[in-house]
């Protein structure tokens, strides 16, 4: 995913010398935008002793989101999105893979996205957003909710005046997770709140946008 994001920079090099100010691509007021983003990450963890693997685990994450926005000013878009994220942890014991934990997130968000030209086709962007998700965790048979508000820095590279590649580079902000007890028992709950900056692979995404 990191290599894909760096590809946005590489594509811009061949255009930076010959372009003029009149050719600079901007998002004018009234422009509409459709965007589809993907994210994926995976990891393998091992616990061993003197060369022998005692325990091994694998994890993977897949996410997809679709957005619709409208430019309310030059290079400033406001909009809404739908989100889905799937996380899975697998225990590996003597070649037998066992799914230990699955988390599913179904979410909705609102955002404002500001763009700044780096070159005539490559733009830096900052996306301020607030989102709410319903989540399910299989190993604890729990349901809950996730609320996030923060900023996502990113890059936009226009392949043409209407089609662009989009990259998101992380998340900086506040998160709150609330989990209810299983089987409809609401006598107790757990809540986790945090404010941090996350730039790992779980917060990197790559997508494509259509401006019209």
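^ Assign residues to that structure.
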């Amino acid at each position: 995913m990191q290599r894909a994001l760096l590809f946005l920079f590489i594509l811009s090099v061949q255009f930076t010398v010959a372009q003029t100010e009149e050719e600079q691509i901007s998002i004018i007021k009234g422009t509409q935008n459709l965007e589809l983003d993907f994210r994926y990450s995976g990891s393998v963890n091992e616990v061993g002793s003197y060369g022998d693997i005692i325990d091994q685990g694998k994890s993977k994450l897949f996410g997809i989101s679709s957005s619709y926005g409208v430019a309310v000013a030059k290079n400033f878009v406001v909009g809404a999105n739908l989100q889905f994220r799937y996380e899975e942890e697998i225990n590996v014991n003597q070649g037998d893979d066992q799914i230990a934990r699955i988390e599913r997130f179904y979410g909705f968000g609102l955002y404002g996205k500001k763009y700044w030209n780096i070159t005539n086709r490559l733009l830096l962007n900052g996306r301020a957003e607030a989102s709410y998700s319903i989540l399910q965790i299989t190993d604890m048979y729990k349901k809950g909710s996730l609320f996030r508000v923060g900023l996502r820095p990113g890059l936009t590279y226009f392949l043409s005046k209407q089609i662009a590649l989009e990259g998101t580079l992380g998340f900086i902000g506040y998160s709150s997770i609330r989990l209810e007890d299983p089987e409809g028992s609401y006598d107790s709950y757990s809540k986790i709140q945090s404010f941090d900056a996350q730039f790992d692979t779980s917060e990197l995404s790559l997508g494509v946008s259509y401006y019209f």
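Residues 17-22 have pLDDT under 50 and may be disordered.
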